[in-house]
Design a protein that fits this description.
Two copies of one chain form a homodimer.
Chain A: H1 3-7, H2 14-21, H3 25-33, E1 40-41, E2 47-48, H4 51-65, H5 70-77, H6 102-114, H7 124-131
Antiparallel strand pairs in A: 1-2
Helix pairs in contact in A: 4-7
Chain A binds a DNA duplex (30 and 30 nucleotides) through α3.
Keywords (chains A, B): DNA-binding, Repressor, Transcription, Transcription regulation
Pfam families (chains A, B): MerR_1
Protein name (chains A, B): MerR family transcriptional regulator
DNA sequence: CTTTTTATGTTATTTTTTCTAACACTCATT
DNA sequence: AATGAGTGTTAGAAAAAATAACATAAAAAG
């Protein structure tokens, strides 16, 4: 219950997050832009990430290493709140440009998940290591 | 056992630490200069604090709010490693300017501890709040 | 009761880090 | 061939943090 508070507490700078996740700043910002994370901001507009943010980024990374694209990741991560975009009910309106139906997404996910054959998926150590902080 | 790794992992910037502890940067740097903490450094020489560092700072703060001075805090915290100064055995040599004998320190501590009468000692909330991260 | 020392505030200047925005490129899809 | 997705790279501006110096109130020492 009180867990939420400390898991959502803004603690980490960009530099630390890139070290923890081995993502580039570019990637992190892009994922934010896509609504996958919503890090807090300092007074001067610098990003401040929480444990949840880092957890989420590691999850995103692992999914994308499997070849899943942003749309797919979005779908997988829905339910876990970056509340500003996934506002209210499970599906607000599918609106917007991408214009993918649920069926489309499902097909896409299945296709992409089935091709988890190749790809070396490294740096598991990190995900394992950091996740010990919470949970 | 593996706890040490994550408790000593360099994670927090100065800005975050000052928020967590409600110490000023000046104070944090001074305490470092006095050998009470040994935060890691980034490539560009910026301080990176671990959970242990923050814990330690909160402890220092609480002691000083009771009127204990740096020498006293040093004594109280000895045993908990800022390894570079407290190298090897419990007492390397007392050398240097301060030149305090153990008896002196004991006297000093007793005197200062006995005057914990007044002083409002606020912000206990924070110490309680953060310590839930580990332990 | 002066003099010193402690712990901290303040200010100035320089480095480091981060930000946004733009443009480029690769690869997959159309 | 054209398009779009994800990321790299670069440039310039802004924020955060570093060091260092000087200032000072309160406590300690003499």
């Amino acid at each position: 219950m009180r867990d939420d508070i400390r898991r959502n507490m803004p603690l980490f700078s960009m530099g630390i997050v890139t070290k923890l996740t081995e993502l580039t700043p570019r990637q992190v910002r892009y994922y934010e832009q896509q609504g996958l994370i919503k890090p807090a901001r300092s007074k001067g507009k610098q990003r401040l990430f929480s444990f949840n943010d880092v957890d989420r980024l590691l999850h995103i990374k692992s999914l994308m290493e499997k070849g899943i694209n942003i749309a797919g990741v979005k779908e997988v991560l829905s339910g876990r709140e970056p509340e500003t975009l996934s506002r209210s009910a499970p599906r607000p309106e599918k609106a917007e440009r991408p214009n993918l139906s649920d069926a489309d997404l499902h097909k896409l996910l299945k296709r992409q998940l089935s091709e988890l054959s190749a790809r070396p998926n490294q740096s598991h150590l990190i995900r394992g290591e950091l996740s010990r902080f919470f949970h």
